[in-house]
Amino acid sequence: MRAYDSKLVEKAISTIRMLSVDGVEKANSGHPGTPMALADIAFEIWTKHLRYDPTDPRWPNRDRFVLSCGHASMLLYSMLHLSGYDLSLDDLKQFRQWGSKTPGHPEVHMTPGVETTTGPLGQGIANAVGIAASIKMLAARFNDQGPLFTGRVFGIASDGDMMEGISGEAGSLAGHLGLDNLIFFYDDNRITIDGKTDLAFSEDVGKRYEAYGWFVQHISGHDHGQIEASLDRAVENTGRPSLIIARTHIGIGSPKVDSSKAHGEPLGAKDIQATKAALGWPEEPTFYVPDEVRALFAERAEDGKQAHEAWKQAVAELEKKGGEIAELYRKIMRREVPADLLEELCKIAPTKDAATRAHGGVIEQRAAALVPSLVGGSADLNPSTKTYIEGSPAISRGNYTGRNIHFGIREHAMGAFVNGMAVSDGFIPFGSTFLIFSDYMRPAIRLAALSHLQSIFVFTHDSVYLGEDGPTHQPVEHFWTLRLIPGLDFVRPCDALETAAAWTHALTRTKGPTALALTRQKLANIPRAEGFDNATMLRGAYVIADAEGAPTLVILATGSEVEIAVAAKKALDADGQRVRVVSAPCWDAFERQDAAYRASVLPTGVRRVVIEIGVTAPWYGVVGEGGLVIGHDDFGVSAPDKVIQKELGFTPEAVVARIKAHLG
Ligand SMILES: Cc1ncc(C[n+]2csc(CCOP(=O)(O)OP(=O)(O)O)c2C)c(N)n1
Ligand SMILES: [Mg+2]
Question: Distance from the CA of 196 to the center of ligand 2, in angstroms?
């Protein structure tokens, strides 16, 4: 471990502080006080422990640094700049500006070295738990071949992170799983936006984390001896994640110290002058980096490069050895999916009528056999969501060989944990629960989309037809609230074949999340026309039963409503219509198709009906003038599904009657 002259350390810390202050000032917006206070801790993490190589920010055996309090982003950008990442002083000067690599809160796909998108408090620390677990799971698979996966996850969380429920869920799970490669600082500055934390927060956070099973230490966050010693103990500690509670002073060194005013507004020229004077820091130039500070970080980057080289060596040995383990390594690290996955899954799609969750269970087993990267679990609903990967254990404290994860009843943390795995290396993770509880994890789903992560969310019990559990459990607005998240693909298959396509969709969509909506109740498998090309299903919407001749009516339906549409077609055809039925398992994907394909499925000038047992409003834009939407714009009700179908007017007869009345 490197030791540094204390004067040089002081200079480096002032550099970090003042880069952050200058960045916020130039943007005339942002959060200066927290980066100022966290400079000491960040310096110790980055220069004494963090293993990184700025020339290859995503090198798989790097350590991670997760800034859960994303509002302190200038701290991270300052560290990345000094550490030699591809982030220039000019980039720092563009903080928060249009098109810059330094957005207001860290976004993983925007900036080299940013490990995960943070800003909504609590998400980062929960992502970090998923990242730490995925490193453990890689280690369990490959470390008998050499020191391939030894990464640690360092991070900083603020009062807000600690107040948010998601961090409690994630912290509890991390403690339960004994993730000792997770080391977080809690920035205990006792200040939030509204004032002092005692306005709303009085528990003993340390005792809480101890109760979760964490190794908890208390230090001064500005005393380098204490920071260093606590980090050493945390890194040495085994069997438990670490929380280092660091008492800090927001805006330290400035006239706004210890005040919520230091949180979210630029210091202002006068206070910057006073701060720089007190530090003996030159007022000009701004964004000043002394040469000796640059040299310190340049030297430090060499450590990471060496570690990286040693790791490459270990990988080369594994590859030279070849055989099954090398193949597994390649498949996992590339997140390999067979090119013919769709056909493989369609081939084994059950032919018996069943709930799509049951089909999903069968298909997922085959997918898991073909894709070793696939891992995941449910929030205590395995018997219902049917996603447990057979023949593999669940991970547990000290044993991370399995492919299953018992998330417990912690949907929000499950979402963020899955995102942490997706943003890390090797795995294609899924989390499953009832569709209604997507509400409990929505912020994580949204962040998966914003961050372009291959997170898979498997939601079952997808409509009012789940029946007797009643309206608290029955999704009605959820199809659309999920479709409306940009970048999330929402897939609601109608039968076994579409469920195979849905899993293919999720496993091959590498740059964004997919949510599957599967039924609790049995659905009919729908026959496809002779010569049907299974790949058509991946276009999001397609003709599943066509009219003879030019259609006079198009009925578009999703999931459980497709068989109703097919039944209605029969009756309406007998009545002189020529009905085309379009199944639309993934409206998001259909909207990405070219105009010619879309027009070939939904011809203009032909009347349209949509059937979907959920809120109707957005579908009116699809059916257009003179169109009909048969949906349900209210909560559901507790009753057997057949009764619900009848009472809500979703039997084929009722649907036919409504369409006939509409057509006049
Ligand atoms: C989920 C969520 N709610 C609210 C906010 C808005 N917000 C940003 S920072 C903050 C609290 C600031 O206090 P703290 O977390 O202690 O950070 P500090 O000011 O100490 O850096 C809030 C409420 C947010 N970013 N995320
Ligand atoms: Mg605070």
Answer: 8
Which residue in this structure is represented by tokens 């220069």?
47
User: Under a CB-based contact definition with an 8 Å cutoff, are residues 626 and 554 in contact?
Assistant: no
176-211 CB burial, b ≥16 within 10 A, e <16: ebbbbbbbbbbbbbbbbeeeebeeeeeeebbebbee
Per the CB < 8 A criterion, the answer to whether 350 and 496 are in contact is yes
Verify cis geometry, omega within 30 degrees of 0, for the bond prior to 603: no
Burial label, 314 (beta-carbon count in 10 A; 0-12, 13-18, 19+)? middle
CB neighbourhood size of 618 (10 A):
16
Query: Cβ(608)–Cβ(602) under 8 Å?
Result: yes
Residue 156 DSSP SS3: strand
- Between the CA of residue 580 and those of 529, 530, 533, what are the distances in Å? 13, 16, 18
DSSP assignment of 393-450: PBPBTTB---SEEE--S-HHHHHHHHHHHHHSSS-EEEEEEEGGGGGGGHHHHHHHHH
Nearest CA to ligand 1 atom 15: 160
pLDDT tens per residue across span 541-592: 999 999 999 999 999 999 999 999 999 999 999 999 999 999 999 999 999 9
Indicate the DSSP class of residue 46.
I
Rounded to the nearest 10 degrees, what angle do helices 73-83 and 33-44 cross at? 40
Q: Is the dihedral of CA 70, 162, 149, 364 positive or negative?
A: negative
Predicted confidence at residue 2, as pLDDT, reads 83
In whole angstroms, give the CA distance from residue 153 to residue 132.
6
The total number of residues shown for the chain amounts to: 664
Statement: residue 88 has pLDDT above 80: yes
At residue 102, φ and ψ (nearest 5 deg) are -125, 70
* Ligand 1, pocket residues at CB < 6 Å: 34, 69, 71-72, 119-121, 158-160, 164, 189, 191-193, 250, 263
How far is CA 422 from each of CA 210, 276, 296, 377, rounded to the nearest angstrom? 28, 42, 33, 14
Q: What is the Cα–Cα distance from 122 to 621, expressed in whole angstroms?
A: 37
Supply the Cα-derived Rg of the chain in whole angstroms.
27
Ligand 2 centroid, distance to 596 Cα (angstroms): 54
Task: Give per-residue pLDDT as tens, 326-357.
Answer: 999 999 999 999 999 999 999 999 999 999 99
151 with 64: CB under 8 angstroms? Answer: yes
How far, in Å, is the centroid of ligand 1 from the Cα of 217? 23
